[in-house]
Amino acid sequence: MTGGSGAGALAQRIDKLFKTVKPKGREFTYEEVAQGCEAIGGSFSKTYVWQLRTGLRENPTKRHLEALAAFFGVPVGYFFDDEAAARIDEQIELAIALRDASVRDIALRTMSMDEATRRSIAQIVREVGNIRGNLRGEQREDGTSG
User: Which residues does UniProt assign to the signal peptide (predicted)?
Assistant: First the structure.
């Protein structure tokens, strides 16, 4: 892993994929992942998938990583390149947000607006988020607390 992500980073990334890649509206089971990866290439068991997700096994073969990446629809670099993982995580978060009909509606409506209006709307959304965070005592986007 690059960038000092160290032990447990692989497990964290696999866990994040389980929690965020939900084409069936729920997390995949270990059995589904094992069967999917086995079909792509390699011998997998649901126990092995569980061990990788929980960090009990941290050194899978290249073939296993390729199968996991293909199953979850991410490049294999996601598992060992911090910059790639950050970019992919952002894309996954965007895809998750766009599953929400209200978010899609707002995004589609702003597409027909000029750039200045979109910037103004983005600022309004940030401010509303900051106000809501302040009410809960969370940190603002600018780093100050509320």
Answer: none
Quote the pTM value. Answer: 0.68
Burial 103-134 (b: 16+ CB within 10 A, else e): eeeeeeeeeeeeeeeeeeeeeeeeeeebeeee
**Roughly what angle, to the nearest 10 degrees, separates helices 30-40 and 46-54?**
110
The amino acid at residue 43 is S
Cα-Cα-Cα-Cα dihedral sign, residues 79, 33, 53, 45:
negative
Fold of 9-98: 434 Repressor (Amino-terminal Domain) (1.10.260)
Residue-level pLDDT at 3: 41
Alpha-carbon span 139 to 136, nearest angstrom: 9
- Map out the domains of the chain as residue ranges: 9-98
Rounded CA separation 27/119 (Å): 35
**Separation between Cα atoms, residue 130 and residue 145, nearest integer Å:** 9
Low-confidence ranges of the chain (pLDDT < 50): 1-4, 146
